[in-house]
Amino acid sequence: MKIIDLITKSTLSLSFEVFPPKTETSFESVKAATEEIAKLRPAFMSVTYGAGGGTSKYTLDIAKNIKELYGVPTLGHLTCVSSDKETVRQKIEEIKASGIENVMALRGDIPGELEGADRSKWDYRHAIDLVLELKAANPDFCIGGACYPEIHPESANQKEDIKYLKEKVDAGCDFLTTQMFFDNNLLYNFLYKIREAGITVPVIPGIMPITNANQVARAIKLSGSFMPQRFKSLVDKFGSDPLAMKQAGIAYATDQIIDLYANGITDVHVYSMNKPDVAEKIQSNLCDMLGK
Ligand code: FAD
Prior knowledge:
- The chain is α/β, with parallel strands linked by helices.
- It is built from 11 helices and 9 strands.
- Helix 1 runs parallel beside helix 10, helix 3 crosses helix 4 and helix 8 runs antiparallel to helix 9.
- The longest helix is centred in the C-terminal third of the chain and has 21 residues.
């Protein structure tokens, strides 16, 4: 099932994100965690891709397993920046052969050792290069792209970021998923600006439940996210109490989703990151809105 056909436009619908194992030894435990999440029957599940690393081969295994065992539509992530054309084309062929219809086309982060390198000879410099490659390989792929309500950290300004986002969408993205954010007003503002710029595809907001204090620094580093005072107070108060922090983080994420739904957004992606208990709790908090 294509994600574009799952966008509900009327009732609240959640999707969950998981990540593949880093090593063969953790494969079974990751597989079990992702299956627990699949049992919640989300709209779809996305499986991240370990850019340039040895974990990339597990993305497809986990995605196929969820799809085949539980019938949950899957979105396989793929990055391109640290790969050559041959490797990426082979990956695309594997995705095609697996029957996975949805691909999140990403550039990936520039590895530290390549920062400052001459990029003119790279096979892939931006996600748009991968979008074009995917479309050429299979016009039927449903392609997702990443977007950044608080602008991508490498962008000079939002106008430039949105200009390149429009080019990426026009190259063939069927939908966009946002980077995490902790203040919904940032998303509303962003949506207004991209619609004004002529980007009309569905945008699925990504919500990250922060369930331990260590995640905060990582989230800021990854996304440059603005932390509202209400969120900071919660981390100050509960950061040293793991159970209370988890409860508060889930409540905060739930609240964000309710506000999004109240403002007309029906499809929300939850960065549940292999935590079935967190995914389950968020879903049960919203059961009446989800009709589950
Ligand atoms: P791009 O769309 O290429 O944008 C990157 C930067 O380049 C932006 O500043 C953009 O404005 C600029 N740009 C774009 N096109 C041009 C152009 N033609 N000329 C000049 N500048 C341009 N990483 C992983 O490794 N694995 C994952 O599974 C993964 N999943 C993700 C899922 C989501 C929803 C999000 C938001 C991010 C994810 N990431 C993942 C992180 C992502 O790889 C990084 O944020 C990366 O730095 C940018 O990827 P992109 O696809 O947004 O790149």
